[in-house]
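User: quick one
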Amino acid sequence: MVTESISSVPSPAGDILKIGNQTFHSRLLMGTGKFASFSIMKRALEASHAEMVTVALRRVDISRHEKDILQFIDPKKYWLLPNTSGAKNATEALRIARLAKEAGIGNWVKLEVIPDPRYLLPDGAETLKAAEVLVKEGFTVLPYIQADPILAKQLEEVGCATVMPLGSWIGSARGLKTKDALEIIIEQAQVPVVVDAGLGVPSHAAAAMEIGADAVLVNTAIATAEDPVKMAEAFKLGVEAGRTAFLAGRVEEKMWGEASSPLKGIL
Amino acid sequence: MKPLNLIRIIPAEGSVKEKIEIFLNGQKYPLSSSGSLACLIESLKINPKQIAVALNEEVVLRSTLETTFLKNGDRIDILRAVAGG
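Assistant: Done. Structure below.
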């Protein structure tokens, strides 16, 4: 696998995202689920300029030959982030992370522990328990969490490489429902904050970047759009717009109107 | 397609030739003989690269696939990367 910077895609003013021992130019992480085909996924990946992509781990179907997703993800271009989806508690998450490592897809892990099938909300206590063990075992841990500033701090303290609070429920496309809490997490975090889940349109991604998120992770909104390749590009632009705006420093909100044209010399 | 009923695994040298049953990815399969996990993977024509194996819910280290032998009633899971968020 690549050990240093993974892409030569230019970014505004050398604006680099560092997670663990890796650097990235793109601040859009992409999930690979729900695409109509691997070839559409591959084209969407290219359009997104994402450099880190998530995959899941599942049982091989031994009754038939399946296409191998890894044939469609060039390891020279993309950093693989296996997730622990399917895990309902810390024990299951640990097993999945260790299996992914044995499968040779790296020792990074998007840690998700989800006991709730309706809203797919992550279990913070179990996530923290699993994170502590995985960090000790040498994993680079990126935990998916509710927008809980205390938990984010605890995960950072046990050595997680990022925190990944949700904007809203996975796959809900509801946007930044947790904005106030995200702002607290961003203010306090010493590790990159990746807003994961619930972003439905590029303006949601832009809004997350504008408030200072270091990156966003998007899957459903791209994969299930009418034109996933075009939507991937739109999210890339949204993330870049939001990031550039954050670096530019936004104007303060005011209670009253303030004229943009001079008030002197009016007829 | 119907799942395989019998997996004819290539027996490893020195392994006992006896019929056993295993649970492979949650389904019961009779095997024509015992053998190592590496033999099982080979007989299933699964590319051994980028898969992971759990035996009775314990992660099997890649380096021990050839020396881990199947026993009657073992639960084996063979996993690989798939699309996911």
